[in-house]
Amino acid sequence: MKQNKFVDPKVTREEMVKVLVKGLGRSLTDIEAKKLFWLSETFYETRGVILDIFKELVERQED
Q1: What confidence score (pLDDT) does residue 5 get?
Q2: DSSP assignment letter at 42
């Protein structure tokens, strides 16, 4: 699903963590989590595009 509408940064952050943990097959390090927190505070369209990229990469990995 393309994230073109406003979504609360907290929701986006949680989704980013979930998708990345799934794709990486491991927990995030402290520094990775801190950078994701920072990234999730950007403009809603920016964080939506980045989340879509993360999701697409994980989906392709599963195929």
Answers
A1: 77
A2: S
